[in-house]
């Protein structure tokens, strides 16, 4: 049952460790020196909370819906921004899709927060160039 609930893990400077929370259970927290420890602690805490709720005859909060992203979405942006991004992509010699994909991946990997809705197989993190140009040399 813990695998049905979502978890978010991030580094905490205050705690000098990782904090994992379960949003569906009022941000139930757990702590660990590593991401794996924080997740294991949270899974144990989820089991305890579920057992407690059942013993009290209370209804369990529903897990969040698991989404299966298509890899596509539509974003409306001002024409001026569209023109600016198109120009930049042309200068870099990449498609507009590649440029925006790279920018989004950089923004998404900026923080150390990791969230998932259930046990997901490990996926490699996107690797991005730190140079100003996104074009492969």
Characterization of this structure:
It is a single chain. This protein has 137 residues and is an alpha+beta fold. The chain has a domain at 2-67 and 112-116: Double Stranded RNA Binding Domain. It has 3 helices and 4 strands; from the N terminus they run E-E-E-H-H-H-E. It has helices at 35-55, 79-92, 96-108, and strands spanning 7-12, 17-22, 28-32, 114-116. Strand 2 and strand 3 (28-32) form a beta hairpin. Helix 2 (79-92) crosses helix 3. The model is unreliable at 118-137 (pLDDT under 50).
Short description:
35% of the residues lie in helices and 15% in strands. With 137 residues, it is α+β, with helices and mostly antiparallel strands. The protein starts with 6 loop residues before the first strand and ends in a 21-residue tail after the last strand.
Q: How is the secondary structure organized here?
A:
Elements (H helix, E strand, L loop, with lengths): L6 E6 L4 E6 L5 E5 L2 H21 L23 H14 L3 H13 L5 E3 L21
Antiparallel strand pairs: 1-2, 1-4, 2-3
Features:
137 residues; alpha+beta; Double Stranded RNA Binding Domain; four-stranded antiparallel beta sheet; 4 strands; elongated
């Amino acid at each position: 049952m813990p695998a049905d609930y979502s978890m978010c893990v991030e580094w905490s400077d205050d705690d000098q460790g990782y904090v994992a929370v379960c949003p569906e259970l009022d941000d139930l927290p757990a702590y660990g020196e590593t991401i794996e420890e924080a997740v294991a602690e949270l899974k144990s805490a989820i089991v305890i909370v579920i057992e407690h709720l059942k013993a009290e005859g209370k209804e369990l909060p529903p897990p969040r819906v698991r989404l299966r992203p298509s890899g596509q979405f539509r974003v409306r942006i001002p024409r001026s921004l569209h023109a600016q991004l198109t120009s930049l992509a042309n200068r870099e010699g990449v498609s507009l899709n590649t440029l925006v994909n790279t920018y989004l991946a950089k923004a998404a990997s900026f923080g150390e927060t990791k969230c998932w809705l259930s046990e997901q197989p490990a996926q490699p993190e996107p690797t991005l160039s730190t140079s100003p140009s996104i074009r492969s040399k």
